[in-house]
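Reagents: none. Just compute today. ABC transporter ATP-binding protein.
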Amino acid sequence: MSEPAIEADGLTKRYGEVTALDALDLTVPRGELFGFLGPNGAGKSTTINILTGQLVPDEGTARVAGVDPVAEPVRSRERVGILPENGRPPSFLTVREYFDFVAEARDLTDIEGRVERWADRLAFESKLDTLCTDLSQGERQKTLITQAFLHEPEVVFIDEPLTNLDPIIQERAKRFFRSYADDGNTVFLSTHFIATAQEVCTRVGIVNRGRLLDDLDPRELGGETLLDRFFATVDADSVAVDPADPAALAGEE
Ligand SMILES: Nc1ncnc2c1ncn2[C@@H]1O[C@H](COP(=O)(O)OP(=O)(O)OP(=O)(O)O)[C@@H](O)[C@H]1O
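Predicted 3D structure written out:
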């Protein structure tokens, strides 16, 4: 069997008193559109930052696209695409200049065809020569999604990619993410949109308090919704936080 696209073993990260990741284990096989779900502060961004070579864990190991992002962050970042949450393209470049800049950094030549395809897919052809500072929020998001996929990486991390996109473009983007994974690449989608994860993801992980609590195929949920499963999983874990509270342990209000 081929090596998984993403493997994390015992990842631990502390910020002072706060344990953001608590020996997190995670395996994502190639070809999955993997939804990474969890409440605010669960450790999603911290996990992504470690897996993309932007943050060093206190303990644990990781491999992404065959590279150790902790030992070889630069080589690792070459292999992956990243759509950060709340990112902003540089204000002083036009959209096209920004893509040229990304292409230069990624050692890509002849990106015109790719840029045109993305502009068509996400409907921003008319904005290619606009300064990034003059883009709407949704147009900025379209620009950032495009840069994440421009070098056609085998693993892409996308953090809340649908934010600020209109419903038509959301549908197109979702279809694209799924087809990109169906082509054998791996898409790691961090989101609070649980219905979207149920709709498009081929696998989903639920994280809380820095640990992976569940890892499932949402198509095998039967009658249960992913939202029900999410609430039940996180609630059960939160009850476990306070064993001194007998009412909570009994599941009472
Ligand atoms: N630079 C930092 N310094 C101190 N604490 C941090 C730092 N970054 C994250 N944390 C803390 O680590 C925990 C995990 O944060 P993280 O950003 O990974 O969560 P998240 O799941 O991405 O949350 P959200 O859904 O709100 O974006 C939180 O308690 C957060 O306050």
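Confidence is low (pLDDT under 50) at residues 246-253.
Action item: order primers for follow-up constructs.
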